[in-house]
Structure formats: C-alpha cells, structure tokens
Amino acid sequence: MTEFFISDLHLGHSNIILYESRPFKDADVMDEELIKRWNSVVSKDDLVFNLGDFSFHNKYDTSEIVSRLNGRMVLIKGNHDCHSNKWYREVGISEVVQWPVIRYGFCIFSHEPVYLQAYTPYRNVHGHVHGKQKNEPNGKFFNASVEVIDYTPVTIEYISGFLDTSDMAKKDEGEG
User: How far is CA 120 from CA 42, 125, 137, in A?
Assistant: First the structure.
C-alpha cells in the first residue's frame, strides 16, 4: 500500500477554473481529468489523504465520483467541505477528520497552512492556497493543491524531496 496526498480538487466547481486559471473548458471536463490523473497513480489498495475542498457536487454525484476513484480516502476537511462527517462517509470516504493529522512523526497534514516557529522540527503539507504558493526546495511547507502538483496525487517520497529535514537529522543524532 502506498500513501498519496492531494488537496483542493473542487470537483464540480465551475468558478475555480476561472479563479485559478485551470486548463479545463468546464467542470465536467475538469472532473473527468482529475479522476483520470488520480487513477493513473493510485491503485485499489492505496490510501489517499485528501487535504480538503473535495467536492461541490450533491451527495449522489459525489458518491458516483468516489466510487470511480481508486484506493481508500481520508478527508481532512477544508473550508468548503461543509457537510457532516456522516455525509462524507455515506458517499464512500473511509475516514473524515476535522483537524490536522501528524504522520511520519514530524509532518503535519492540514487543509490550511499552519504556523510553524523557526526552530520547530515539524513540516507542514497543506492545500488551501492553490497556485499562490509554489513548492521550493528545502522548505518547511509543501503545497499539495492540485494546481501545484499537476492535478495528480503525490507520495511522501515526492513531498520529502521539497522539505528541509536537516534539523530532524540532528535531533536523531542527539545534537538538537
């Protein structure tokens, strides 16, 4: 099983195409391309952490889309995920959480970027800011918004290539 990460699909949201200059003629074309790219890397046994703002569709259409997506999904709710946790589970999402999640001992996965003090060993993988924050090498943050990651879920190995882990290595060696 591989774990993947993605944020801000905004399925069914026509205006996001204009707001973020997404390269799709309409929401239907966008939805189909996002499903295709998701399934091109995610297999049925994989786990996808969706960092919020998943679907603007109604319950039936959202359920249809979830049934077409490979893998199991954990939704970390974003500001546009306004239905109940039960609603999201009923459409087929395996797990729904309201708050950021810490994985791999040092990585905070959230919808919105979180404040990190300069000396903290934590790193933040987030969405919410769409294409406004590009990923820079050796940073404390990774933007998993679809506009930044070519509309395709990415692995922690890919994300790790952008994160500064130097102070974590020192901590492991007993220097910090």
Answer: 32, 15, 18
